[in-house]
Design goal:
Layout (H helix, E strand, L loop, with lengths): L6 H5 L1 H20 L3 H28 L5 H33 L8 H30 L4
Length: 143
């Protein structure tokens, strides 16, 4: 039977995939091929990834229960990195919207956006790692 506890596991894969693939598109644009398609793809994947990160964070924070013991410690770590993911991706998205609006996408400011995007990508990876440890190693005892 479906429970609201299932919403978080159903949403977590989107920010992981979107932010990582978007960052790869950004890397390709900046360092390999100055094709505007990659820059646009990176922007839209970031924007959609940010929205999905917010949705995933909200579903985890409000629709799942608090855990105790080792699971609670792991849940807190997972949540901390999720907050970093959401904040850094929101800041990066707003900054990239500013660069787009001001036609400064290829100015030196692009490197600030690149660093923010990198932080978001690393943070979503760490968040997903801790979520996986929580579910598979601690709650399911597979590890």
């Amino acid at each position: 039977m479906f429970s609201i506890d299932h919403i978080h596991p159903m949403t977590v894969h989107f920010p992981i995939a979107l932010l990582i693939i978007g960052f790869l598109a950004e890397l390709i644009y900046l360092f390999i091929k100055k094709e505007k398609l990659f820059r646009e793809a990176a922007f839209w994947l970031l924007a959609i990834g940010t929205v999905s990160a917010v949705a995933s964070y909200v579903s985890g924070a409000f629709l799942t229960g608090d855990l105790r013991g080792a699971a609670g410690v792991q849940q807190n770590t997972h949540e901390f990195y999720a907050e970093i993911t959401v904040i850094s991706s929101l800041i990066c998205t707003v900054f990239k919207i500013y660069l787009k609006a001001e036609k400064k996408e290829d100015s030196p400011l692009k490197w600030i956006a690149f660093v923010l995007y990198g932080i978001s990508t690393i943070a979503v990876g760490i968040t997903s790692y801790h979520g996986g440890v929580l579910v598979h190693d601690i709650l399911l005892g597979a590890g």
